[in-house]
Design goal:
By secondary structure, the protein is an alpha+beta fold. The chain has 2 domains: 35 residues, no CATH class; 82 residues, Ubiquitin-like (UB roll) (Roll). 35% of the residues lie in helices and 32% in strands. The protein is built from 3 helices and 4 strands, in the order ααβββαβ. Strands 3-2-1-4 form a 4-stranded mixed beta sheet. A hairpin with a 2-residue loop joins strand 2 and strand 3. The longest helix has 22 residues. The relative contact order is 0.18. The model has no long low-confidence stretch (mean pLDDT 89).
């Protein structure tokens, strides 16, 4: 997703008319990006693997940044009597604002990660969610 957003940023910086053809450089980048996209994407979206009551849900969040973008990902670990299920629950990425230092971008990524985790925790009402969010 971030690569596509960066190409979009580059296209917008060209300041061409909305109906004008994009420069060859941007068109080539887009064609390469489009060619590398998978034909289909499938992901297991189930929070749990077993049809039984939940014992405990733990939220783990990761945030990172680079000069090109910032991202955050929320994983859950769900404990049940017959096993534990873990997996990606949600993620978010943004193009980095130009001119910011890496430490500032890391701070933005951390803030984005915490906001995402709090929103996930608040949306999992009536589940035994650990109030402590584990951040990395």
């Amino acid at each position: 997703m971030l690569e596509g957003k960066l190409i979009y940023r580059k296209a917008c910086k060209q300041k061409t008319a909305w109906d004008a053809a994009l420069p060859t450089e941007v068109t080539e980048l887009w064609d390469k990006f489009e060619h590398n996209l998978p034909s289909s994407v499938s992901m297991q979206r189930s929070l749990v693997a077993f049809q039984e009551p939940l014992d405990h849900v733990t939220i783990h969040v990761f945030g990172d940044a680079s000069g090109k973008g910032v991202c955050a990902a929320v994983y859950t670990v769900v404990s049940q009597e017959f096993g534990t299920t873990q997996g990606l629950l949600t993620a978010k990425s943004r193009v980095a604002k130009q001119g910011l230092t890496i430490p500032r971008l890391e701070l933005i990524a951390g803030h984005m990660a915490v906001n995402l985790a709090v929103n996930v925790r608040d949306s999992l009402t009536n589940l035994p969610v650990d109030p402590m969010i584990h951040c990395c």
